[in-house]
Every structure is written in C-alpha cells, then in structure tokens.
Design goal:
This protein is of the alpha/beta class. It is built from nine helices and eight strands. The protein starts with 13 loop residues before the first strand and ends in a 6-residue tail after the last helix.
Length: 275
C-alpha cells in the first residue's frame, strides 16, 4: 500500500545514501491498519515540531506533483535568502541524491532521504534526517517532499506550514482533482508563470477552485526561472521566519522593565520607596 512507513524491509529508507535504519529484529504485524499508521506518524510529527520549536526553527513542507519546478524554486529561494536567514533542506526522493546535490551547490546544507518504494516522506524519516544535520536555529528548514499530490496530504511531518507548488504546465483543474492536498496547504505557489502564454491554463479558474477548497490559502504567482514574483514569495518567507535573537532579547528586556516598574510601584505603596 502507498501509506507505508518507508522505513522497513519492504521499502528501505536511506539517509544520504546510508543503509536501512534498523528497528530491531523479530517485529511483525499481520495486518497494517492505516488509522494506526497515521496515529504513529502523528506522534513522530509532534516530536519533530517540539524539536523545531526548541531550536527556534520554522519548518515548511514543500509538496507538488513531479515536474512542478519545486527544486528549482527552492534553489532560487536559497540563493536570494542566503546570508540573510539561516536555512537547511531535507530532500525527499525515491532514488538518487541529485536534488540534494543541487541544494548543496548553493552553499546550504541538505540531507537526502531516499524512500525506496514509498511515495511520500513521513514524520519518522524526517526525524531521522534531523539527526544527521544541524538545524538552522532562528531560521528556516525546507522539507521537499516526494513528488506526489495524493499520499503526502495524509502525513504530517511536523512542519509548521505546508506549501503546495503547482506549475502552469500541469493543467488548471488540479485543485478539484486532488482536493485533499489543496485543503491541507497553507500556501499555493503557481510556478512557471513565464510559460503561461504557451499553455492552455486558466489562472483565474485554477485560483477560484483552490479558494473554494481552502479560502484561507495564500497564493503566489511566480517564475523561479525568470524571477518574476519571487520577491513577494521571499518576503512571505521572511515573515515566516522565527523571531531573531535580538527580538527575543528585546522582548525579555521589556518584560524585565515592566516587572521593575511593578515592584517600584509596590514599594512606593508600602512606603518603602520615595517617588
């Protein structure tokens, strides 16, 4: 079945080309039940989120069908934000490390997960990948999922937001064909806008479908190839970024000032301090 852990003998999970993660011997299940599987995945997702929050990392799960330009968008994004925001990437593909190599060429650290026969990443695998990297404290962690508009919709990875990438070459009827993915996405990036004059894609119709399924969705129109619309996208990512340490320090300072003011007022009321 497609809703598999991706970390077992039937569908070996490899991180950066390494071997199968060992779960121990002798563990068997006669009938895998999807409900139980998703419950276990959700537990791992909560643990991942706790890890991200503890490191002040904002994690984004990038999902799409194959060929949407997801990796190209990610490379263009990293190049624009490099040196400004700490970033790291977890790459998901069934085979090869090509996408991780493309990310590393930008100077940003990347860990590749190869899922074997599994058609999606799961929270357990993402947790293992985090053990092989330094999380970008105060920054952004991009998790590029396996290209698929079906299975990844069911699996929470522990990311704070899900970003769906759709290219104009795929057809404007994708939202109603794959409603679960569109309902669960926080943002929609319509990519390859430079090809719009050459394809039969109704931009307004596609966005209308997406908004019927998910009225709160943020929609971006851009071309990772030409750079059109990229600034609006990167500005949104800047807002997504966790508070900087400076901002945290300022907040703590303001809290201390309020406490001092309250203590001084109490001392004055008790006659222990002159105004």
């Amino acid at each position: 079945m497609c809703t598999t852990c991706g970390c077992d003998d039937h569908s070996p999970l490899r991180i950066d080309g390494g071997g199968l993660h060992s779960h121990g011997q002798g563990e068997t299940r006669s009938i895998p039940v999807e409900k139980d599987l998703l419950a276990r995945n959700d537990a791992h997702a909560r643990a991942n989120r706790e890890r991200f929050d503890a490191s002040r990392v904002r994690a984004l799960n990038l999902v799409s069908s194959p060929g949407s330009g997801k990796t190209a968008l990610l490379v263009a994004t990293l190049e624009r934000l490099s040196g400004e925001i700490p970033m790291a990437v977890i790459e998901g593909d069934q085979e090869t490390q090509r996408d991780a190599d493309r990310i590393r060429a930008t100077g940003v650290a990347a860990v590749q997960i190869n899922t074997g026969k599994a058609c999606h990443l799961d929270a357990h695998g993402v947790g293992h990948a985090c053990e092989h990297m330094d999380l970008p404290k105060g920054g952004l962690l991009f998790i590029e999922n396996v290209g698929n508009l079906v299975c990844p919709a069911a699996f929470d990875l522990g990311a704070h937001q899900r970003v769906l990438v759709l290219s104009v070459t795929e057809g404007d009827d994708k939202p109603f064909k794959y409603p679960d993915m569109f309902r669960t996405a926080d943002a929609l990036v319509i990519n390859k806008l430079d090809l719009l004059p050459h394809v039969d894609f109704d931009l307004a119709a596609c966005e209308a479908q997406a908004r019927r399924l998910n009225p709160e969705m943020t929609i971006f129109r851009l071309s990772a190839h030409t750079g059109e619309g990229m600034e609006v996208w990167t500005d949104w990512l800047r807002v997504c970024r966790p508070q900087t340490q400076q901002a945290n320090d300022q907040e703590e300072l303001e809290t201390l000032r309020r406490r001092v003011s309250e203590l001084e007022a109490r001392l004055q009321r008790a006659g222990l301090m002159s105004s």
